[in-house]
């Protein structure tokens, strides 16, 4: 008998329904599968994960099942079901149970089973008068011959001498089933019997209840459909079963939960389609904007005012930052509850690289810079060169999110996309257009080469400039180093990337020359600064290295953690670049000038 009582080790365990009474600390809903909450009532008494049931008229293994909840908790049982379609499902979904395709009665042999239509399959019955009533009501029944066993013989065949509960649902055939049990030979603690006329609220227990009373059981509950019995001397069971399923049991009906889950699945499919359509529209709008910019540029050339004209002087490094935000802002699109973060359109991802969605994702909620920067540094993040939101999107998934976030970029299309698509997910996230001149990224002869950051002194605890200083020209780099030093909090850190070279390898350089370029047509394509100039530039501003991480490929990007020189973390040295040589090139973007290019890698 012990073999029938072991839970299936591989099964997913669900907490007992009874554990939810007064247990709001467990937010996960506990599912009731039975049609009238029978499993809820039983679970108050049976709280363990090791049990055995006998289910006569087992039906579908999930829908309206009294035993599915217990199966998920690791119980096993004997399922008796004469309908072939349900028996096959039981065999498939309950392989650890004993599944018998027979009908039960007070004699063995065969009998005619009147099979109900799909909408009343559970009304299938051996009773001719019940079948006749269904037909008079207009139901179309079919008939098939099925094998019949006695319950006592079936229990003996499988060596079953005890069970925690017996459930009987046989559509008018209850007396025949219950009369074929040797109640002295089997120990069953609880018996649950459907106790109304089939498909009717009219009680119909008088013909079979005396069998249970004579066997020493007492009725603990009539729930409107079933009667629950326990041994007359089992006070614990009688008390636990005495109240129908109710709100204090904390269960949710499976039909409701499955309906909601199906609706949620459909909602997510529609939402994904909407996001994909919006991304495609964003790409089209971006293309149209660039066509308009190109047309404007051609018009300027025709009028003799091409973009090659010298830009006006920039504000001085000490100029006060703007006190108001730029007037032009894209309208928000309010996110739907549970909506996933939008992914930038492929046109934008192609410009900043890499294009794979995983590079924009942070599914584990990890800190953006891992162990390099403590969580306290994320109080206020300034992301200079925010691009189309690669860093921002990861920070929105980070646990915890930054207290404040400001993304600055010179690519207006990407800024507006982030304003529309990402800002609505957190009121503390902002994106602003850093409207400085760049012939390919942000054309306009009237634009300054650099601007102050719209941030107060000492306000930023984490300054991000990833793939930004690698594109900043010498005419602007001093300004932006001054700005970085100005806005960085006393305990703040700037995480930046740089291309560096050693002057000893370029003896032809003049003393005032400290930068190299790789593209004569667009020097911002890659700007490489001299190592000693870089260190001197930090020292002149009261800054120092906290981290200096050499590139993985010689000559490529260094990662620099920069702090104020009084910070305890200051003191890192710049190691030699002895990485292996190799080639690292960004993907070529045809006609990139037509689409514009973000100032960052994000």
TrEMBL record:
It comes from the Bacteria. GO terms for cellular component: cytoplasm; plasma membrane. Residues 55-217 form the Methyltransferase FkbM domain. The keyword Methyltransferase applies. SUPFAM superfamilies: S-adenosyl-L-methionine-dependent methyltransferases. Residues 1-29, 303-345 are annotated as: Disordered. Residues 381-492 form the Methyltransferase domain. One of its GO terms (biological process) is endoplasmic reticulum to Golgi vesicle-mediated transport. Keywords: Methyltransferase, Transferase. One of its GO terms (molecular function) is methyltransferase activity. Pfam families: Methyltransf_21 (PF05050), Methyltransf_25 (PF13649). Transmembrane segments: none annotated. NCBIfam families: fkbM_fam (TIGR01444). PANTHER family: PROTEIN STAR. This is FkbM family methyltransferase.
